[in-house]
Specification:
By secondary structure, this protein is of the alpha/beta class. 36% of the residues lie in helices and 14% in strands. The strands form 3 sheets. It has a 10-stranded mixed β-sheet, sandwiched between helices. The longest helix is centred in the middle third of the chain and has 36 residues, at 308-343.
């Protein structure tokens, strides 16, 4: 081989290497581009936020301009529902995409198994950086998150403790603002800018005891709230509802809930000591501001104490004021996060969801709290924006559940949805690509005997009808025509005009229980476990 041939071979080899490297670089660039274009996800969840208390839903109770921005720039869901209207179980369903009887967290008493799969773990595996900040109400170190900074249990409104990656710390200030600050700090300094991210930004508010931030003490002071038309419900035909212990008139604690912590301790109530502990967390400056607002209210109440119907209406007014004031701080935080995303050019490629762990009663049936399968607690707010796929002003009227968050997020991230997930992705539904969707949803509630005395029950809802079975120490069925009776005041289960509807709903209930793997045997097992944990005698349901 002569010198020219050798030169030619080396030249061709060089050209081949250059071309190969060029192709590899182009391929790597494409892969990196694909990796970077995976959408970020900001999942905002508050606690006990009634859909009625978001101005985008049109109930005119308050003004939530920042939460409304999500709806105006994206979609509003008019039929968002939960599968189990109580805090910890709802969050377990959200994480796993599975009903309570499958993920094991059926109530607030029995433990949650963090070792099971959740959608954050799946996103981690696919290259997402993940963070959980705020309230989760599931005991144990969160799994699936590179960073977690969460409230222990229910958390506290003033000077709260947080658990940062397993280490407990106390922060000075107001919990809603602190949660927002930690979320913004993570977005700004802790996340890796070249990776897609998942941020679960979860607020404590507006959970009981509705302690507002100082700057909102006087918000709504000149607004008179009108109670719902069924505020003085007599619960005719609904014996389970009649046995409740969540009435604003009878059960809302003057001190614990309505802040009437008088210094001379004349107002003696069941939960006075519990609220005293919350008050004592404040420093002297915080207490001074608090007392400056509440002491005149206490004095006025003691001077002219209302009774009977007037007391019920007074308590309703006070409840609404403080409940809605705590929401105003939540709305502020949402605005700060939305602004950060815009200022850092992240809006276009970020999915933003706002929801609550369940709905809440704002005087409907005379109640506060949740738990029942009746609409106000069964239904939850849901708003969503993603400029790449969701048109501004989109309205979704199909029945979506918190069961569907996990598969939806995995779908957007182009991650295979595990076969054992029971929810469905609503990606095509909200984008308008498809209108095919379920026509019925399933609900369970297990925490009885327990707080608020809400009987154990399960049931299904279709577009028009709802069937509920209350059991354990009662065997009672209820059927509602939601088109004619949206407030669920008239139980038509024994109405002969609805015989065919009743038969159809019973058949659908059996089908739904089979579909989701529920059964009388499993119901009994969950009951036994609950009674055992509470130290109560076992009983056949």
């Amino acid at each position: 081989m002569n010198l020219n041939q050798i030169k030619t071979i080396f030249f061709l080899a060089f050209i081949f290497i250059v071309i190969s490297c060029g192709n590899k670089t182009e391929k790597d660039t494409t892969q990196n581009k694909e990796k970077k274009t995976k959408p970020n996800i900001v999942f905002i969840m508050s606690d006990d936020h009634a859909y009625q208390a978001i101005s985008a839903y049109g109930h005119n109770l308050n003004n939530t301009p920042n939460i409304d921005r999500i709806a105006n720039e994206g979609a509003i869901f008019n039929r968002g529902f939960v599968t189990n209207s109580i805090c910890a179980p709802s969050r377990a369903v959200m994480l796993t995409g599975k009903h309570s009887h499958i993920n094991g967290k059926v109530d607030n008493i029995l433990p949650y198994n963090w070792n099971q799969d959740n959608f954050a773990k799946q996103l981690q595996k696919s290259g997402y950086q993940t963070a959980l900040i705020g309230k989760i109400h599931l005991h144990g170190l969160p799994q699936g998150f590179h960073y977690s900074n969460v409230l222990p249990g229910q958390g506290q409104y003033y000077n709260p403790d947080f658990i940062e990656n397993g280490e407990k710390k106390r922060y000075k200030g107001y919990v809603t603002s602190i949660t927002t600050d930690i979320a913004l700090e993570w977005l700004n300094t802790k996340r890796e800018k070249d990776k897609p991210f998942l941020l679960l930004y979860h607020q404590k508010a507006p959970h009981r005891t509705w302690m507002p931030e100082e700057k909102y003490f006087n918000l709504f002071k000149d607004k008179k709230f009108t109670p719902p038309t069924n505020f003085f419900d007599d619960y005719k035909g609904r014996p389970a509802a009649a046995k409740h212990e969540m009435g604003i008139f009878k059960d809302l604690d003057i001190v614990y809930d309505l802040k009437m912590l008088d210094k001379n301790k004349e107002l003696k109530t069941r939960y006075r000591k519990a609220f005293q502990k919350q008050y004592d967390r404040m420093d002297s400056v915080q207490k001074s501001a608090w007392d400056g607002h509440y002491n005149p209210i206490i004095a006025s109440f003691k001077k002219n104490t209302p009774v009977g119907k007037d007391l019920a209406l007074w308590k309703f007014q006070r409840y609404m004021e403080d409940y809605l004031r705590t929401i105003q701080s939540v709305d502020d935080g949402v605005g700060q996060v939305l602004d950060y995303l815009e200022e850092n050019n992240l809006t276009e490629n970020t999915i933003i969801v706002y929801t609550s762990d369940q709905g809440f009663y704002l005087g409907e049936h005379g109640w506060f709290d949740k738990r029942f399968m009746y609409e106000e607690s069964f239904r939850t707010p849901l708003l969503m924006k993603y400029p790449k796929e969701i048109k501004p002003g989109t309205v979704v009227n199909k029945m979506v559940q918190n069961l569907d968050f996990a598969p939806t997020f995995l779908d957007y991230a182009e991650v295979d949805i595990p076969k054992d997930i029971q929810g469905e992705s609503f990606r095509k539904l909200v984008s308008g690509e498809s209108s095919e969707w379920r026509d019925a949803i399933y609900y369970t509630y297990y925490e009885f005997p327990g707080e608020h005395h809400v009987k154990r029950h399960y049931g299904i809802r279709t577009d028009r009808y709802k069937l509920i079975h209350f059991y354990y120490d009662i065997n009672h069925w209820e059927l509602y025509d939601l088109e004619k009776d949206p407030s669920e005041m008239n139980n038509i289960y024994d109405n002969i005009a609805y015989i065919e509807v009743k038969e159809t709903m019973h058949k659908r209930l059996i089908e739904m229980r089979e579909k989701y793997g529920d059964s009388d045997k499993l119901t009994q097992k969950n009951l036994d476990n609950y009674l055992n944990a509470k130290g109560l005698k076992k009983k056949q349901f």
